[in-house]
Write a structure and sequence with these properties.
The protein is built from nine helices and seven strands, in the order ααααααβαββαββαββ. By secondary structure, the protein is an alpha+beta fold. The chain folds into two domains: about 150 residues, no CATH class; about 180 residues, Heat Shock Protein 90. α2 packs across α4 and α3 packs across α4. The longest helix has about 50 residues. GO terms for molecular function: phosphorelay sensor kinase activity.
């Protein structure tokens, strides 16, 4: 229905515009409207014949050998049809068309063929344009589905080592302290609830992401001894910032994974800040140089980089700096 209305409006506008062109050689209002009706009617007929039948049946289906002959034959037939129609109307004075200029039979024939060709070309170009836009839209939709599927896969992955450690911590605490075990299980439950039910959207408030990170850090802290100096801070100015879920957790996981365990004091520190319309995460941890291999970071960091490319193209910066005993990471993200 909407297409029919838009097309009707278009042809009305086209009719009014065309009669202004006819005005230059037919000044009588009645004559001008009748001539415009003949011209626009011929254009519409050729347009829809080419748009709806000839182009999709021959050109779009790769029958291009027949396309041009059929199109030219159609132009010829319709042109002749309108020539004889106008001759008939003029000869028997069926309509009061009077010329204020000299126009012979050859001019009439040439004019009809030109009008017919104009309609055919408009239908051909129009159909190709519509098919091009439709094909492009399908490609874009397919790409969106692919990206959405990939993001869903990357987002819902859970680190199996963390699951094992969390369950093991609860198991140990059951004998040592029931209350501590309940607290651990509650934190773990909140994290799973966030993953399963609150992250179905592309973006979430930073407050929810921070709560998830705090639960994670808290669970990790329960299994660490006093050698570990663990801090996780964030600025109050972050309130209201919207971010893709699970973008930050791989960085914090990586800090715990590669922290030093030689028995010396170990620093694991993460800080979130917001300024100049961008979120900044700065993480730092001491590390053992001989424990870090070429594959340091694992699949979690790789997935995070891929998600950043998909969600924040040209709107993020990730810098990782390694020294002999220190690992630092900076991530900046600008809102979309």
């Amino acid at each position: 229905m909407r297409k029919a209305v838009l097309q009707t409006v278009f042809w009305i506008v086209f009719f009014l515009s065309w009669q202004r062109v006819v005005y230059f050689y037919v000044d009588n209002v009645t004559n001008r409207l009748l001539f415009t009706a003949f011209d626009v009617g011929q254009v519409i007929l050729l347009f829809y014949l080419t748009y709806s039948i000839i182009t999709p049946q021959l050109f779009s289906r790769r029958n291009k050998i027949l396309f041009l002959p059929v199109l030219l034959t159609t132009v010829l037939v319709v042109g002749v049809l309108f020539v004889y129609t106008m001759q008939y109307f003029l000869h028997y004075r069926l309509v009061p068309i009077y010329f204020n200029f000299s126009w012979n039979y050859s001019d009439l024939v040439a004019n009809r063929y030109i009008i017919a060709l104009l309609g055919a070309l408009a239908g051909f170009i129009g159909k190709l344009s519509v098919e091009w836009f439709q094909a492009r839209r399908k490609i874009e939709e397919a790409e969106k589905i692919r990206v959405a599927t990939e993001l869903m896969y990357l987002k819902t992955q859970v680190n199996p080592h963390f699951l094992f450690n969390a369950i093991n911590t609860v198991y140990i605490q059951i004998d040592e302290s029931t209350e501590a075990a309940k607290h651990t299980l509650s934190s773990f439950s909140e994290m799973l609830r966030y993953q399963l039910y609150e992250c179905n959207q592309e973006k979430v408030p930073i407050e929810k992401e921070i709560a998830y990170l705090q639960h994670y850090v808290g669970l990790q802290q329960m299994r660490l001894d006093e050698r570990y100096q663990l801090t996780f801070t964030y600025e109050a100015s972050l309130q209201g910032f919207i971010i893709a879920p699970f973008i930050l957790i791989p960085l914090i996981e990586n800090m715990f994974k590669h922290a030093s365990n030689k028995g010396t004091p170990t620093i694991i520190s993460g800080a979130l800040s917001y300024s100049n319309n961008q979120l900044t995460f700065h993480g730092i941890n001491t590390r053992d140089d001989d424990r870090v291999t070429a594959k340091a970071g694992g699949i979690g960091l790789t997935n995070m980089k891929r998600r950043l490319e998909l969600i924040y193209p040209d709107r993020h910066s990730l810098t990782i700096k390694k020294s002999k005993d220190l690992y630092e990471v900076w991530l900046t993200v600008q809102p979309i």
